[in-house]
Amino acid sequence: LPDNDQPGSYPTNTTDGSGEGVGACHQIVEGLKIGSSVDPEGAAMPSDEADGDDANPIAGTDDENGVANFPMFLAGQPATVEVLVMNMIPDGPTAYLYGFADWNKDGDFEDAGEAVSVPVANGANGTVNLAFNVPANAVLNMEQGFRLRISTDDDLDATGCAPDGEVEDYFITVMAFDFGDLADNDAP
Length: 188
Fold this sequence. Notes:
This protein is mainly beta and 188 residues long. 0% of the residues lie in helices and 34% in strands. It has strands spanning 24-26, 32-34, 73-74, 78-87, 95-101, 115-120, 124-133, 143-151, 160-162, 166-175. Strands 3-10-8-5-6 form a 5-stranded mixed sheet, with no helix packed on it. A 3-stranded antiparallel sheet has the order 2-4-7, with no helix packed on it. A two-stranded parallel ribbon has the order 1-9. The protein is globular and about 60 Å long. The model has no long low-confidence stretch (mean pLDDT 84).
């Protein structure tokens, strides 16, 4: 996600200019990942389109591939994000999949309702559902940050380094519609 110390940017870099570690980072461990691939970077690669590491010359692959298709996010409605995960660490512990959505577009994931998590049992290799409740007052029709993290750390925030796992950043949009209001009683 973009990180330029401006409103609407996100904590992506490992420092925010004051020397405080704020970005999300994970030590890559074989058998624990989001999606089909994970590639290493030497540092955070924030970009305006949240795709700075997609052209990573080391692996040359887009490793933001844990979400095949996002649901339609509607203000005031629940939404389930299906995420492909793997927790195949030999004799490893339960992992946790975390989802963070910046519903109010203030550049962080620290507000009420912006974070959800689910356990991922050791031996899991498939789809896990993250259930969000999109607030009725969510910012509409604008890209806002969405972050996924998986780790064996059972108390992970949207920022900081984790002992293992992966982080993926995306943009999402919350939609709003105006529906008709004529009587509809399903009668001919």
